[in-house]
Amino acid sequence: MRLSDRLRRVVIVGAGLGGTATAVRLLQFAREPLQVMLIERRPEYRSAGVAYHPAGNHWHHVFNIQAGRMSMFREDVDDFVAWANDEADRTGWPPEWSGFTFTESGPAPRRIYAGYLADRLARAAREAADGVTLVEADGEVVDVEVGVGHAHVVVERFSVSRNDLGRTTLRADHVVIATGLEERDLPFAADVVHHPSFVRHPYSEAGIARILGAGKDATVAIIGTLLTAYDSATLLLRRGHTGKIAMISRSGRMLRTYPPDHRHRVLALPAPLLHSDSYEGRESLLRRVTAEWERACAIVAREHPEVAPVTVPERVSKSWEPHLPEVLARIPSADLRALLDQYGTLLATLRVGAVAYTTGIVDAAIDDGGQITLVTGRVDRIAGTEAGTLLVSVAGSSAQTFEADLVISNFGREPDYGRSGSALWAALLRKEIAVGHRRTGRGVEVDADGALLGPSGVASGPISVVGGPREGDEIVRHGRIGAFTFNLAAIKNHSVGVAATVLRRLESCYDEHAATVVEVPGEDFGRSVVLDVHRMTARLRHDREAFATRLEMSLGRIRDTAGGEVPWTYRALRSAVNTAATEKLNDLSVTPRELRGLLGLAEPSTVE
After folding, report:
1. What angle do CA 275, 281, 283 make, to 5 degrees?
2. CB under 8 Å to 237, separation ≥6 — which residues?
3. Between helices 570-585 and 541-562, what is the axis angle to 10°?
4. Cα distance between residue 402 and residue 571, in whole Å
5. What is the distance between the alpha carbons of residues 180 and 19, in angstroms, rounded to a whole number?
6. Cα 569 from Cα 394, distance rounded (Å)
7. In sequence order, which residues have a C-beta less than 8 Å from that of residue 459 and are 6 or more positions away?
8. For residue 9, what pLDDT is reported?
9. Is 101 exposed, middle or buried (0-12, 13-18, 19+ CB in 10 A)?
C-alpha cells in the first residue's frame, strides 16, 4: 500500500453517507492521478454511519421516506431500488424481506443501505481513471494543520489493510470533513447513563439487544415522539410487546404518514409575503407566517386537489425554500436562534413524514386501547430505584413521575460544535481554523462551495465540509429547515459540489481562478455544459472518456468561433463549463426525476 506524500491526495474524514458519497464523486469526476483516502474511526460505521449500520438497525427499522428517494445519485433516482431488487445479496435476509420486491413508494430496511453504498463505492473505484485510487483506512482524525496549499492530517490508531501504524500524520492536498451528526449530552440522564435499564444509543448493537431483551410486559418510556421514538416503538410492537409504552416530548408532535403512492414533487406557489420594509419583531413575523401558511395551504387545496391533505405541509414548505433566505436575513441573530430552538420540532414535522410500515403499528397502538400513551412535557430527571427500575420525572403543565422497566433515549443531536465532544472539532475551533455558525449557532461557517471559513470569513485552507456541520449555512443560504439541512438530499448536493470544486483546484486541466467566462458566443457553451454533465454522471470509464473527447471538441469549437485573439484558455473554459455543469446537477428547483429528464441523461452505461 503506497502512502507516499508525493501522491496527490484528498483525505476524507468520516466514511458514513457523506464521506462515501463524496469519495464516489471524486472517483467519478477525477481526470488525473489522485489518491482518495477515506478514514473512519468506527469500522462498523463504514459506508453506513449511525443511521444505516446493520449492527444498530434491526430489520424492522425502515427508511422514514420511500425507497425511491434513497438513491445516492440525484441524477439517477431509481438507482437504489434497482440495486435492492437486482443486485443486493439477500443471503441471510429474513423471510419478510428476502422475497420482497421494492418499489418507488414502498418501504425498505435501513440496514441494507450500507451494502448499497459499499457496492457503489467499489464500482466507482473499479471504473476510475488511470492513477485514481481509493484507500480505505481506520483511525480517528484528531487534528488538521494547515500549510500553504496543503494540510497535515493527524490520525490516532491509523490502520490500512489491517496494518496498525499508530499515530500518523498524513500530508493532504485537500481535506473533506464528513463527520456526521454530533451527540448531545443529556443532563437529565447523568445519573443513569450506564444503568442497564437505560438505552442511550438505540442505534447500536448493545441498544438493540437491550430493547429486544426487555420483557414483553415491561413498562417502557421512550424519550421523543419523532423518528427515533417510532423506530423503538415499532421494534417493540412487532416482536409482540404487550406492556405499556410512554412516548415523551416537549411538543407532543407525531410523524405524519405518507400516502401509499407518494412521490416527491415541487409546486410553483406564490411567494410568501413574510416581511415588511423593516423587521417588526418575532410576534409580528409569526403572525405573518401563520397567515401566509394558511393562504398557501388553501391554494394547494384549491389548485392542486390531487395532493393528499397530509402532504400539503411538505409541498408548501418546499415551495417556500427559495424565498426564505431573504426573509431570514432580516431577522436579528438572537431572534433567529430563538425561533429555531422554539419551533425546530414543528419545522421537522412539516417537511417530512414516514411510511405506513413504521407509523401504522404505532398509531394503532395509540388509538386502540392506549397501549402507547403520549406524554407532553420536558424530561427533568431520570433516577434509579433499588428494584432496578427507573423513575422518570416530567416537567410541564401536567408534571408527573412514573416508573419504567426500560427507558430509551432519542439520538440527542448537538448542533453546537463547540460542545460536541469531538477531538477534531475542538482542535479546529481552538485554532480558529473553524468558527461556529454566527447567525444560527448550528454547525460551522462555510462558503457557498462548502469551504471551511475562519473568523475573517476567508477559507482557512484546503478544507471542505459535507453534511451536518453545514446546518446553519443550509438554513440561511438555501432556506432548508429541519432535517433537510443535513439529510440525504443535502448530502447529495454537497458531495457533487465539493468534489467538483476540489478537482477544479487540484487538476492541471482547470484554471480555478477563471471559474466564470462571460459572453461566450454561440450555443456550443451550453452543449459543452451538457456534455460535462454526462461525463460527470457516467458510471463507466469508457463512457466518461467518450464524453470527455466530445467535450474537448466542443471547447475547440467555442475557441474557433471566437476567432482572432481568443480571450479564453482551454483551462479557463473547462473551469467555466464544469462550474455550470455542477450547478445544473445541484438544481434544487426540480425533483431528481425531473432533473434527469431536463439534463437528457440516458441510462448510466450508454453514450448517446
Report:
1. 95
2. 361, 362, 365
3. 120
4. 68
5. 9
6. 67
7. 447, 451, 452, 453
8. 98
9. exposed
- Residue 135 pairs with which residues in a beta bridge? 37
Per-residue three-class SS string for 505-548? HHCCCCCCCCCCCCCCCCCHHHHHHHHHHHHHHCCCHHHHHHHH
Torsion sign (Cα): 216, 221, 224, 228: negative
> Do residues 436 and 453 make contact, with C-beta atoms less than 8 angstroms apart?
no
Of 18, 69, 87, 17, whose CA–CA distance to 498 is shortest? Answer: 18
pLDDT at 396: 82
All 3 cell numbers of residue 426?
A: 475542538
Instruction: Name the DSSP class of 259.
Output: P
pLDDT in tens, 33-64: 999 999 999 999 999 888 899 999 999 999 99
Q: Which residues, at least 6 apart from 126, have a Cβ–Cβ distance to it below 8 Å?
A: none
Rounded-to-integer distance, Cα 347 and Cα 173, Å: 39
Beta strands (DSSP E) in 47-162 are 132-146, 151-160
16 touches 50 (CB < 8 A): yes
Pairing of strands 198-199, 174-177: unpaired
- Residue 331 in contact with residue 279, Cβ under 8 Å? yes
Residue 430 near residue 438, CB atoms below 8 Å:
no
Select from 318, 319, 297, 320 the least CA-distant residue to 309.
297
Q: Which of 418, 337, 404 is nearest to 375 (CA)?
A: 404
- 1 close to 163: Cβ distance less than 8 angstroms: yes
Phi-psi region of 472 (alpha: psi -120 to 50; beta: other; left: phi over 0): alpha
| pLDDT one-digit tens code per residue, 353-401 | 899 999 999 999 998 668 999 999 999 999 999 999 999 999 987 789 9
